[in-house]
Amino acid sequence: MNGIGQDVWMAVVTCFAAIFTQNILLTTFLGMCPFTSVSREVKAAIGLGVAVVFVMTFTTVLNWLAYYWVLVPLKLEFFRFILFIIIIAAFVQFVEMVVDRYSPKLYQTLGIFLPLITVNCAILGTSLFMVIREHSFIVTIGYGFGSGVGWLLAILAMAGIRQRLNESRVPEGLRGPGITLIIAGLMALAFVGFTGVLS
């Protein structure tokens, strides 16, 4: 298998690993704030999840290009945090304008959490993991997309469970954040069960 073919294969494996065995939300617990807050309704969870997939995929790729084409040649790798945050903030602003223009109802539903994608630590974490793990460009595309899909899958599952819980009798002391964190822990255990299938 040639270099490009091997990179594509690694990108596919990394993508599936990022969704299941290395889920950015359920194995490293990055991006918990919007996860617990926006997962009350499935529709809002889908909207935010799709936005996170889009932002995470493209910002990871843009950050890879900025890191390896700008920072590394200039030996300014220590600026990566600042540069990554600037790129993420600019891209989120673009997504916010598009959602506001084409889906005002979704924009109102997501509220403050849409601009807060900028400080969603899962997105910055994906870019930093990409650098730490020294992924190639093609593998970075798979990793960014897989991490976004994994986050979407987790918040969608949580939203579905929480909507069903509205019809259930949850003890008074566990309502709200308590039961949400218990469910998140059980979901994390389920995803950890995939460990060893893909690494």
Description:
The protein is mainly α. It has one domain (23-190). It has helices at 3-19, 32-38, 42-71, 80-102, 104-110, 121-132, 137-165, 177-192. The model has no long low-confidence stretch (mean pLDDT 87).
List keywords for this structure.
single chain, 199 residues, mainly alpha, 8 helices, globular
List the helices and strands and how they pair.
Elements: H1 3-19, H2 32-38, H3 42-71, H4 80-102, H5 104-110, H6 121-132, H7 137-165, H8 177-192
Summarize the structure.
By secondary structure, the protein is an all-alpha fold. 71% of the residues lie in helices and 0% in strands.
**SSE arrangement, N to C:** HHHHHHHH
Helix content: over 70%
Q: Give Rg in angstroms.
A: 18 Å
Task: Tell me what portion of residues adopts beta-strand conformation.
Answer: under 5%
